[in-house]
Write a structure and sequence with these properties.
mainly alpha; 8 helices
Amino acid sequence: MINVIWLILMTSGIVYAGINGRIEFVTASAINAATNAVELAINLIGVMCLWLGIMKIAELSGLIKAVSYILNPLVGLLFPSIPKNHPAMGAIILTISANMLGLGNAVTPLGIKAMQELQTLNSQKDTATPAMCTLLALCTTGFTLVPATIIALRSAAGSVNPTEIVGPTLVVSLFATIFVLIVDRLCRAVWKR
């Protein structure tokens, strides 16, 4: 469906430019956008390498285990249906930790792994469990202490102060996470799951 929407938007833009006799602007804009995308990607490589390196150092130094240890009681409350030492619990903690550090690129594979582990506990393989829904909600809101990916994007785009987003991101992601957890619990109460 999204491909159809993009096709309609692109086609209508090209037709509109052709009707107004400005088709050369479409070509120039396409080339400029492609050039800007490549430049942004190259600028992002360095910044993402820095943050992923910091994440690796945090993992090797034991900081990730410390964060996991701190998060374990909270995650146990959020996911009461998961056995304490099940691999899903570790995958969920890693996913939440990566979200807290703002590493969106790392969250996706960790979240998929957590969902796969949760699926092993699922008796109805074609239906999402409440734990799966809670994890999806948490990953969607993504409570973030350090929005590393956003800082990297802002830095690559030439922002004068790329870290000024930290405060607002912290507040918004905290309130979004609290709200989604309340809605999650209300939905569980309504549907008795």
